[in-house]
């Protein structure tokens, strides 16, 4: 059963060591993410599953203790997924590494942590089915769902300006703030791909997991620094 969820974006710039001189620009976003993670801890889950977008080679399950790193970005910083000894042979994809950093920042100790990398092109029905499988357990399960909105909000955005980006993000923000699983399930994968919205698949995994759970939502952050939609929400 799903008892709580937190939704956070996953730019590496969320990590101050990566952002360096621009670190303070995202202080508000970091604070919102930490507040969302605190909602997960308050739910007293038996397990926490971190779900985030991943390239094809990085999709699938990651056991507790899986290692991650920001060395590919020129930063001498390693992370692990939850407490315990390093485990697993694969390095965490970027989204799960950012989540691991967030959990370390909060000194997470509420429950064991495992990860799930989700392919950006995974069909909606498979995303929903994956979420249902995650919640189909007697354990009190919480999800930390990582993923950005569109990357096309301004001319300086990674995907340049697309007039469809702001309405897409607005609907995602409304759905996440209202814990509207049907609206999340209805997000268009093709449009999300064109707008470079990497959060679409993880959000739809959340929608599947939360079906019938009766959770309420709160939107904690909705901004587009650098032309990318960053949304933070907490469901409990």
From TrEMBL:
<protein>
    <submittedName>
        <fullName>Class III extradiol dioxygenase subunit B-like domain-containing protein</fullName>
    </submittedName>
</protein>
């Amino acid at each position: 059963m799903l008892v709580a969820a937190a939704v956070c974006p996953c730019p590496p710039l969320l990590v101050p060591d990566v952002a360096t001189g621009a670190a303070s620009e995202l202080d508000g976003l970091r604070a919102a993410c930490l507040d969302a993670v605190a909602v997960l801890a308050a739910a007293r889950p038996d397990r926490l599953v971190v779900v985030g977008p991943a390239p094809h080679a990085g999709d699938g399950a990651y056991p507790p203790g899986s290692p991650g790193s920001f060395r590919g970005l020129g930063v001498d910083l390693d992370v692990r997924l939850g407490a315990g000894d390093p485990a697993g042979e694969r390095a965490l994809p970027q989204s799960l590494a950012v989540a691991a950093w967030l959990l370390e920042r909060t000194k997470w100790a509420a429950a064991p942590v495992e990860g799930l990398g989700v392919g950006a092109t995974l069909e909606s029905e498979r995303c929903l089915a994956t979420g249902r499988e995650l919640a189909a357990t007697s354990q009190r399960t919480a999800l930390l769902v990582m993923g950005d909105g569109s990357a096309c909000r301004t001319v300086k955005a990674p995907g340049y300006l697309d007039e469809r980006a702001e309405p897409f993000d607005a609907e995602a923000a409304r759905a996440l703030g209202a814990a509207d699983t049907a609206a999340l399930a209805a997000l268009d994968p093709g449009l999300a791909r064109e707008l470079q919205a990497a959060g679409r698949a993880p959000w739809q995994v959340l929608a599947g997991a939360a079906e019938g759970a009766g959770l309420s939502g709160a939107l904690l952050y909705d901004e587009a620094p650098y032309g990318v939609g960053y949304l933070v929400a907490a469901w409990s």
